[in-house]
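FORM 7B: Structural annotation worksheet

SECTION A. Query
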Amino acid sequence: MFTQVTKGIKVSVQTTFEGTFFKNYKMHYAFGYTVTIENQSKNTVQLTARHWDIFDSLKEMETVDGEGVIGRKPVIKPGKSHTYSSGCLLASPVGAMQGYYHMVNLGTSEEFEVEIPTFKFAAPFAMN
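SECTION B. Predicted structure
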């Protein structure tokens, strides 16, 4: 598990290898990840946007920006958490992701970024 805390918001990520498949005559490697965002601060916050840098050992880095996570903009009260799962397709059996969430403190309207720790993807057969 990969974990990081920014301004009282703890982000933890667990990854899984989902398998391989052919698409357009090319092998693809499917990975899943589950993110838990835990509010350890004293303020209610809302996640409004995300930024991802996706690293694939056989391709150039890809950047993805978007609103919320999986179609939601969760409000997270102090002591509570939000968990979601998503996935990533890579051209190689090894890669990584990192990024940040854009958050708003609902009490003060302060906007801030919460770092997502770099987490790695590796198919079991690619590990030594």
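SECTION C. Observations
DSSP finds no helices and nine strands in the chain. The chain has one domain: 2-126.

SECTION D. Sign-off
Analyst initials: ____
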